[in-house]
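Anyone else keep sequences and structure tokens together like this?

Example one:
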Amino acid sequence: MSVVACVIPAYDAAATLAEVVRGLRVALPGALLIAVDDGSGDGTHDVAASCCDRAVRFRENRGKGAALRAGFEVAHAECARAVITIDADGQHDPARAPALLAALADADIVIGTRARTPGTMPLGRRVTNALASAAMGVIAGVSVPDAQSGYRAIRREVLADVRASGDRYEYETEFLIAAMRAGYRIGSVGVPTMYGAPSHFRAWGDSVLVVRAIWRQRAGGVS
């Protein structure tokens, strides 16, 4: 059980996915690269099939949470000892993946923490991120500097033990809160804030889902 898996949820990412994969091949030689095409309308699946080790395809869009769960299932079946989650749109620097993995020596989940400053992160994302991070701190009693970052390293044990609901961006929030409540250690590593291709995060709709996820956890658990 020595393989490291990289799970790459991808939606309409044909223009950026291959570059992300190339960066991961350099940063993590030998890693198992798993792309999950979340019902894309472009050539994302063809790109994934040509450059990744595993390519899962949804016929219709289900959401990032559903894509992550599907990727985790493949990683588990392949006996991965750890999983890196990284977006397909080029907004995460693959070169930082080894640093996230190394930080698992002292943590169970490591979050790639971005600078939450004007000019580096859009205003709507800064507000949502700050509120989610603060709320998580209150609920779980652990400070989380970038609760919304999808760039993470996760131990196999956490993936086997933690369950979270939600099919879209709220899944990552619920997963993190559930892991903290289960006593898993959260670490962080600074990563560049890179915004190139437009994010699929819906500033209003997905923010509401994240807030609801936090409220459910505050009320006593995942529903």
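And example two:
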Amino acid sequence: MMNERILIVEDDADMRELLEEVLFDAGFETVLAANGRFALAHVESEQEQIDLVVTDVQMPELKGDELLGKIRQTRSDAPVIIITAFGSVENAVEMVKKGAYSYLTKPFATKDLLEVVRAALAQSEAARAQVRLRRDIPAANNRIVGASRPMRELLDLIRRAGNSPSNILITGESGTGKELVARAVHDASARSKSQFVAVNCAAIPSELVESELFGHTGQAFTGARTARAGLFETADGGTLFLDEIGDLPLNVQPKLLRVLQEGTIRRVGESREKSVDVRVIAATNRDLEKAVANNEFREDLYWRVNVIHLHVPPLRERAFDIPLLVEHFLAKIAKKQNVIPREIAPEALALLTAYSWRGNVRELENTLERAVALAHGAVLSIEDLPARIREASGQTSAILASAKSKRLTLDQLEQAYILEILSEAGGNKSRAAEILGLDRKTLYRKLDEYRENNPELEITPIN
């Protein structure tokens, strides 16, 4: 964060100097303004880069709420943090509803200021990165939300895979958004004007899978009164998405393989073959290589569908994207209910960002929908989140309490936490850096320092 510039707007010289000292010592560049009018000149200047504004509410010439309105008209991407006296909290809350990121009441702890500043800058950078991705990769428009490194890599693969006619296998845990990825590939392809047909192989009774995929004649089996086209014929010229292909019955797999090899289908009960032009995108949350080894999935079919492999990372490996996803889902929920999108308190957003999300993006969306439905106030708070998320936060508090009881320094606590996350990431430094919110160079530098201080990296456990 060394290059990020923070505009401090405060008419009290002592407070202005204190804010400057705290932020400068934390590695930020600072710009000072004694009132709202001077601040606005900095924001409107084309020669200055202002990444975040920290402003008082009660100021001469241009008050904090007026300054916020002006900033929103000129620099909608610059977060604004409000500093207010206890008696003006109601005014600060109104400013948050009008677009401020958050507020702090005087007096406040240095760590609280730095925490909200870093969170605001991280969310702002994520939003800008998402805008760049939507501009550079139109296929992802309004479908895939994410600006983290894993998602940037995935979106680049989507763009390139769209230009290829090859079959695709998408892997990933349940709830990660594999169908959204499939639709994005379809949108990026030459078939985008044709049908995208999706089917969940696990949801079709095994005795009906063949007729669903390939169709049937009027007398093919009991109950088949009329001829019916299958999904391959429906998707002719477009894309057929076979979700949960790992659950496809073994007796149907060779028939699917033939379609992929020959480009022809045969309806159940019919001897005549028909040509189809379909691109197949398959998806699974199973380990198909293990299924092949256990004779549960045909090896030749595996290699036929797995020409291009796209892996959708779990949400816990792209925590950087959670603020973006929260904003996206709150807007989606509001549109569905025809109301103004809810705001979320920074401390509640911090809990959501730190949570492990075993159900991935689907679980996050369901959690937010529940929180909106049961919310106590206009802004979603920690109390509006499910108990499992609040309890996970309590576990973190317990770890910190244990660290305190053992009199660990902040440096020791940071070192232990970084090594714990690195261990959870399986030694993958890029993944650990993403979870920690660090760039890789910073993580490598810290690990080098730890090795210099202790080559064996013997860290006292804190839980």
